[in-house]
From TrEMBL:
Originating species: Paenibacillus plantarum
KW Hydrolase (keyword) present: yes
Superkingdom classification of source: Bacteria
Protein name (Swiss-Prot/TrEMBL): Family 43 glycosylhydrolase
Keywords: Glycosidase, Hydrolase
Pfam families per UniProt: Glyco_hydro_43
Family from the record: Belongs to the glycosyl hydrolase 43 family.
Organism phylogeny: Bacteria, Bacillati, Bacillota, Bacilli, Bacillales
Gene3D superfamilies: Glycosyl hydrolase domain, family 43 (2.115.10.20)
Amino acid sequence: MKGIIEMKSDFLMQPPHPETEWSACTGYSESALPIERILDVAISDASICKGPDHTYYLTGTTDVSNIQVWTSTDLKSWKGPTNIWDLEQDGTWQKASKGPAGICSPEIHYVNGIFWITYGLKEGGTGLLQSLTASVLGPYRDLGKITDEGHDASLFKDDDGAVYWVYGNGQIARMTEDMTGLAESPRMVEVQPWKVAGREDHPSYSQNVQVGTYGAFLYKQDGYYYMFCADALARMGSNAVDTFVAVSESIYGPYSRRYLALPHGGQISLFSDVDNQLHASFSGCGSYSLVEHYPSIVPMSLVSHGFIRPREDVLLEKGGVGSLKPIADFPIRDPHISTGPDGTYYLTGTSDKPHHNFWDRNNQLHIWRSHDLKEWNHVAKVWDLSENGTWENNIYENPCLWAPEMIYLYDTFWITFSLQGGGTGMIKSITGLAEGPYIDMGRMTNTDIDSSLFQDEDGQVYFVWQDGKIAKMKKNMTGFAEDPRKLLCSDGQRVGYEGAFIVKYKGKYILGAAEWNGDKRVDGTYDLMYAVADELYGPYTLRRLAVPHGGHGTMFIDHDGRLMSTFFGNDRTAPFRTRPGIVALHVEEDEEGLCIVPYSE
């Protein structure tokens, strides 16, 4: 473990909560622009190499029968393609398999003054081509099969001149000096699983300690080795293939925990431009990618030793969330928006006051108002456990107030809230005004968090909390009129693990809650899930994703009758973190009930 200890990187050794902007994979910039395809040609596993003449060379998987190359002097205008190797005309051992042969994942490398092409076969096996001239156009010498397994391959030259064959899920082996084969058996780079209570990465719960599944690429800077691999993490419950990386001070390891370096990146290559700016070339992987199936280039940034991510001025994700901007600049978590009797919108949520920390004695409840969902003004601090708390202060020495939600019922405002460590409560405005003053209505539940109130069309009010628990309220709102029950989806699964709420729209009951997809509180996404029913107590449909990165947001209906959702950003790939946002939702009937997705112009 010596290599990891010497790294002295907080990000690698002790990953912070994913909400922190400094540890985010996607940094926020007001002026960020979406990435664009660099060619209108579908290419997978796109790879770019900078040659000795400051020309850039692009290749990748195209029609699997030949290797094609495009060239550029500015990374914007590309010429080509030029066919430099044809499987049918030039192939030897590659055509010996019983099934149909196919070339995949070619990469161009300029090593020791020579152009090389690494590649894989669809049916398995990797090979190497050597240019016999000073040109990338060849002709090429076929050096034969390098490994029997693998569908991709790459070259890496270390500072001491040794060249390594890198492929698959992080396999690596030093090559012979003449580069005609391997000088040793390949070994797989192993990452360090990372797990603490409530947080874990994929290697810790799968017991598979690989960086990723395929597309290994090794990069070195400032004495650190970065092993990149592609892996399908199922963030957002999607078909995305992301790019992960693990870091070491020794080429064979030990390597750090892995972390997500490029969302939707899949198999990538890294290269520096003439200004020494680091870039990643890739093909968009998954339906959330802005360049799905097409090659693109993303400027990368080394934030600290061992920590690499896309530059903040690029947007990587399509849809109504990918380009979302905050509606205000104050810090908040778990935002909730409701409407007052005069149509005014009210916003509340978990505050970081008074210590500018969401997890340390943040015991204040604040409210903001708006008439148009754009301009927000602070109304008041309406509750402070150190000043107003009763039962709360008898349970916890330093209580934290979390996830308040506000609703106008029975001619006044009511606010539910929860406490860190468990327990929910409710307060009531005694003036009918949002600013109060409020009185404490007591403790609603002894355990659990994230409470909400829902009033049905018949006037009956229900208390909803945690992961879909629900109970009818007494008419005087002093407690439950029935034993609680839990709302489940038709497959017996809960809709989410926290942040449950109910809204009625188009005659349907929508049950929403937050869930982590992929890694939990490491590299996964904190998403807003939902299920739909014709009756309040169900049966509810199978759960689906409503808002990627939406987590503990809540849905509300605006003045124009549109369904909306609040948003605050709580994972490493969210468009921003701990700021209030609003996502417009598109709703339509389908065979499963209501299909709810972010609205995209």
